[in-house]
Amino acid sequence: MAREIERKFLLKDQDWKALAHQKTHFAQGYLNDIADKSSKSSVRVRIEGDKANMNIKSLEIGLSRDEYEYEIPLEDGQRILATLATGPVIEKVRYLVKVGNHTWEIDEFFGENEGLIVAEVELKSEDEKFEIPCWAGREVTEEVRFYNISLSKTPYNSWSEDEKQ
User: Fold this and answer.
1) Is 30 a catalytic residue?
2) Residue 1 pLDDT more than 60?
3) Residue 104, CA atoms < 13 Å, CB-side half-sphere
4) Which member of 36, 110, 111, 113 has the lowest number of beta carbons within 10 Å of its beta carbon?
5) Catalytic choice (30, 95, 147, 156)
6) What positions does the domain CYTH occupy (predicted)?
7) Is residue 136 within 8 Å of 14, Cβ to Cβ?
8) Which pTM does this prediction carry?
9) pLDDT per residue over 50-59, tens digit each?
10) How do the domains of the chain map onto residue ranges?
11) Nearest residue to 1 via CA among 56, 76, 79, 83
12) What is the 3 state secondary structure string of the chain?
């Protein structure tokens, strides 16, 4: 079992984009409905460039949660997204930006979530120190609406202007 520990931030500006050393297209969809109160996890399929993965995460919102990920054949992943996803497939480009000793993942969303850009940094422990770059804005780690599973049910473009702040 792996434990994912990450912090999420909105961005103040586009200064990070010139620092990106890699970008990859992602498409992901969820196979279970988190509105079902008996659900203890999210199950998703993600196409990342030319690879596909099945991912299971505990439904805890916050700094850390359980995560399992397994590679699956690309054709299976494409078929699953086309036929079994419970909501809209999330489309985004992930950029990697090195800041100090960490690599930040910056997701620029498209489709029903266009306009949303979220930066994440993965940590080895909940109290690990890390450099927050000048382009990182408000932290949204504890705000459920910024999680991909929430975006698949309530896309960013359906939010009020207050919710987007």
Assistant:
1) yes
2) no
3) 27
4) 36
5) 30
6) 2-153
7) no
8) 0.90
9) 999 999 998 8
10) 2-164
11) 56
12) CEEEEEEEEEECCCHHHHHCCEEEEEEEEECCCCCCCCCCEEEEEEEECCEEEEEEEECCCCCEEEEEEEEECHHHHHHHHHHHCCCCCEEEEEEEEEECCEEEEEEEECHHHCCCEEEEEECCCCCCCCCCCCCEEEECCCCHHHCHHHHHHCCHHHCCHHHHC
Block residue for tokens 């990920």: 69
Q: In whole angstroms, how far apart are CA 83 and each of 72, 95, 133? A: 16, 28, 40
CATH topology of domain 2-164: Hypothetical Protein Pfu-838710-001 (2.40.320)
> How much is the average pLDDT of 102-106?
98
Q: Rounded CA gap, 86 and 117, in Å?
A: 23
